[in-house]
Design brief:
alpha/beta, 8-stranded parallel β-sheet, 12 strands
Length: about 250
Amino acid sequence: MTRRGEIFLTAHAGPDSRHAIRGGPFEEFLKWRPRPGEAVTVLDMNGVAWRARVLGLGKDFAEVLVFEKAPLPCVVELTVLQALPEKERMELIIQKTTELGVLRIVPFKSEKSISLCQRESRQKKAHKWQDAALRASRQCRSSFITEVSEYASFSDAIGLLKNKGLGLMLLEKGDRTPVRQALEHAIRQGVRQVYMLCGPEAGFSAHEVKDAERAGFAPISLGQRILRTETASIVGAAIIMHELCG
């Protein structure tokens, strides 16, 4: 059993590497860009999470020292499918949903959203999205780095559901189910994969709504107020993680 004050493990790269650091291989650990003396969250071989300090770090090894137990992450895997917003709203969405425990964020082109080319012509920041997720993951002491996927088409984004979990589409009008009511069934069924589809500032087109419903997404409401796209994503993610993680 792991104890406070013990040298937790020495991990080495290669086919015989231990797979205990953060629940993944050594190469995954290096994606955190750890530094000697830095505190990190690690998982032991029993899946227990610990806070530990990096004692040594080389090209193909790392050694960490346990100093306190850490809460286990929620087992719900939430993917946020986000129509690309204007200005710096994507960075805000990435930062806050990462802090909430979102597993993956997929930016996509909606009929009424700005395109990546248009956004890049105004402000070149798309290449920093994964860096923003890394910083937020480290700040909130996550045991994993939220993944920011490549910019996708609308059809590719909704195609990720593929009956693998619960699909929820945030809509501001029309026939919708309150989000908590939609999650009650998921709780009873023990659903652990959720895909939340969030549109652009101008909303989804009528045929996009129909395509998403055919793909398995259920229209939901976050309340009576009209929310900005970044607010809707953050609030939706917060409610889902709260309801499904307890």
